[in-house]
Design a protein that fits this description.
Order of helices and strands: EHEHHEEEHEEHEHEEEEEEHH
Structural class: alpha/beta
CATH superfamily: Carbon-nitrogen hydrolase
CATH architecture: 4-Layer Sandwich
Strand order of the largest sheet: 5-4-3-2-1-14
CATH class: Alpha Beta
Radius of gyration: 18 Å
Helix content: 25-40%
Number of helices: 8
Number of strands: 14
Shape: globular
Number of domains: 1
Largest sheet: 6 strands, mixed
Length: about 280
């Protein structure tokens, strides 16, 4: 496993319902990342299709593996790159059950996937109308480190990132489609989740306007001490190169020993209290 890796934060806008165009953009940015020495390139939540697609989600969703993942598998193999992106995943067992999924692909093929656990359904959000929630945290062993996947609203629930970290994730990757009104929340929470888990956190957000909903960008890499190491522009497409040094985990864990000081019995109390809410 490499101790240092280079990451490209590919903060793109997606054209709604146009998978062909969006795949071409993902390919373009992946090649750009490769040319600049990146090991991993990260794209936003639902970057394959756009976020505001409503009932068209049932036509756009694909199984994994499927046509789009196979195309990106070939791209990863040709470039030697690792790629993380978001898409609507169609169940292999049913005809209209869809998950909001983060997909992790490497030169060896599909490494794994994560299905968004928390589906916002309030104000401008209506994800529970379309998506089935996921039920499992994930962290994958790869040649570039142990990497966990999460999606957007999951960051409001600290137990998701904590469980991902306890599975061994050294880098937690959050892909997102956050509108501008939520900007301050995510700027706080990305730092908090990295700091309280002494892990690197990469956050890549969508940009552009979809059906009147403006996405704010602001993608970033946060250190295990909560420091913003790299940040993309607000409200426009951007491409940011940054570096992760996994050697930094040890001093962070020593100076901020939150993992050492965990109290497992409190998780049982949390479960009981949540059930009585």
């Amino acid at each position: 496993m490499k101790e240092k890796i280079k990451i490209a934060l590919a903060q793109i806008s997606s054209r709604r319902e146009d998978k062909k165009r969006n795949l071409a953009k993902i390919e373009q940015y992946t090649i750009r990342a490769k040319e600049q020495g990146a090991d991993l390139v990260i794209f936003p939540e639902l970057s394959l299709t756009g976020y505001v697609v409503r009932d068209q989600i049932y036509e756009l969703a694909e199984t994994i593996p499927g046509p789009s993942t196979r195309k990106l598998e070939q791209l990863a193999k040709e470039t030697g790159m690792y790629i993380i992106f978001g898409m609507p995943e169609l169940s292999e067992k049913t005809k209209a059950t869809v998950c909001n999924t983060s997909v992790f692909i490497g030169p060896e093929g599909i490494i794994g996937k994560y299905r968004k656990m928390y589906l916002p359904t309030h104000s401008v959000f209506e994800e529970k109308r379309y998506f089935r929630p996921g039920y499992q945290a994930v962290a994958f062993d790869t040649a570039i480190g142990k990497i966990g996947l999460c999606i957007c609203y999951d960051i409001f629930f600290p137990e998701v990132t904590r469980l991902t970290r306890l599975l061994g994730a050294q880098l937690v990757v959050y892909i997102s489609a956050s509108p501008a009104v939520r900007r301050s929340y995510f700027e706080i929470l990305t730092a908090a989740r990295a700091l309280e888990n002494t892990a690197y956190l990469a956050y890549v957000n969508l940009v552009g306007v979809e059906d009147g909903l403006q996405f704010w960008g602001g993608s970033r890499l946060v250190s295990p001490a909560g420091e913003v190491l790299a940040k993309a522009k607000y409200d426009e497409e951007d491409f940011v190169m940054c570096e992760v040094d996994f050697e930094d985990l040890k001093p962070a864990e020593t100076f901020i020993p939150t993992l050492r000081d965990l109290r497992p019995e409190l998780f049982d109390e949390l479960k009981k209290s949540s059930e009585r809410l």
